[in-house]
Amino acid sequence: xxxxxxxxxxxxxxxxxxxxxxxxxxxxxxxxxxxxxxxxxxxxxxxxxxxxxxxxxxxxxxxxxxxxxxxxxxxx
Length: 76
What we know:
By secondary structure, this protein is α+β, with helices and mostly antiparallel strands.
């Protein structure tokens, strides 16, 4: 019983630095968007794309998300 408790405490002490430091901050956050930019729904899709681009621009100008810049990836 004492041996199991000792091993559990040792494992926690070994994992403590990894948990305390946390993950490294992201340099860039990628956001994907799939929308119709051709065909009958192109008019709506291009307006949505422009709105998302504006939102990303405003977020990046305000300092990003937790210091990381946002990058928009648009696919047709």
